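# step 3/5: fold
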Amino acid sequence: MEAERLVGVSRRALAQSRGTPDIIAEAWQAQALAQAIGGRLAADGPKELRGEARGLSEIGGRSSGSLDHPAARAAVARAAQLSGLADPRATLTGLGALLGEVGMALVGVACETDEQGLYWQCMEAIDAADESMDRVHGMLRRLDEHERERQQDLERGRGRDGPYGVHGANGSYGEVGGPAGTTVAGRGRARLRE
């Protein structure tokens, strides 16, 4: 399943969670998905994202093991269905939203539980979700910077070209003499003027 779609499935499943076991299972699923997406981007994603993506994968791997709950242990990772990642920006935007929602859901669980063990597991998972979200936001910033640089390069390139060819150093047009280039007749007229 494509990454952006998997993120959407996870967000819906978390929104439909009823009670602590479901929320814990979905938090585990979200961290497993963050690990898988991070691993995929580290291996095949844009070069400017690979370092942050490796970090995301490592955080997801560490934190998915911190939720020691029957629902999490029994769950089959939805992330195993990950087949591709077509749009890194859309996937990361959705993943960031999912991680934020997981953090908020875990805060609710931590506030309501009387179990010390579950409380501290939630705290660790909240920290991991925040750390993962920081990595995701870092990758989104890098994508924005890369896009700005690309746009600036394109604009600088357009500034050097005139409507009928490439400007020379002195502001005159170079050998390209118009939309169709310099014609034989055009060269002949230039010689007559000389």
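# step 4/5: annotate
Confidence is low (pLDDT under 50) at residues 173-180.
# step 5/5: archive (pending)
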